[in-house]
Amino acid sequence: MLRCTIAGLLPLMMSEKYAGYAGDMFANHRKLFDDILRHRSYYILRDMPAAIARELLLPAVSGLIKKQKKTGMWVKKDSERISYDILSALKHAGLLGKLLSEGELKDPLDALKERRSYHAALIRRDIFNKSDEEDISWSDSYSSKIRQDQKGDGSWGGTVVETIFHLDRLRALGTASAAPSIVYGIDYLLRQYHEALPGIHAVAEYGFIAKNMFTSADRNREFEAAEMRYPEWIPRNACYRHLAVIQNSVCLMTLLRLGFEPDARVETALDNLYSLIFRFGGLCMHNIKKPILEGKICL
Q1: CA distance 189 to 181
Q2: Where are the alpha helices (DSSP H) in 207-296?
Q3: Structure confidence by residue, pLDDT tens digits, 111-127
């Protein structure tokens, strides 16, 4: 489950400018961070500072060990993605090596031997350093298919969310940052920058203007893209429509990974997120919209 305040804190923690405040952000919003584990949203942890991910994960390790299947995987439905999420979070937090070497966790390589898919390939390569020629061939074919689906404007699907989904997959599969598909995709994202973005209440503006946000013009389509590509986010339309916080935040994370923090649009978008959190205490609608509509905060 990805909610607006956590989504907004992640790029701030990743940035050079605000990373020094990560400990304070974590302490000030500890309940929201604990909810990540309560909702089993392990995928969020690999984008957090390693020390914070470790603090959150440590109490959950015994439960993860107990729930791992004999195959080395977790759960039945969507097992490859969820198993990758757990293993990558443990590795990022510096916990995986010891758990494997001491036999507390089983590796899933035998169970994945015949599986050719995105997450199976990442588990073999990124977690266990066991890629084979079939993985390379499959990854090349899948990357080619992704590139073929890119639109003339550089996007996939005409939304920030779907463009991020495909850019992140291309990069994870080894596409160079200077490759045309990456360059055109990043150019599309940068063009979705809004210096002023009105908050939406129901279907109408209510007077609040957020500054320096990344989203396509159609916020409802952003939500639909999240439903299709990121069901693990458990998306809610209001989160994408109100201030576009989630698409803005994950866009910033992608741009930061690709070295765009010095870009003035990225810098001002980060500053805006920090300002909103400082002013309102969070980024969810109840932090911003509700007190404004009730007259508790002046515009």
Answers
A1: 12
A2: 219-229, 237-241, 245-257, 264-280, 285-293
A3: 998 888 999 999 999 99
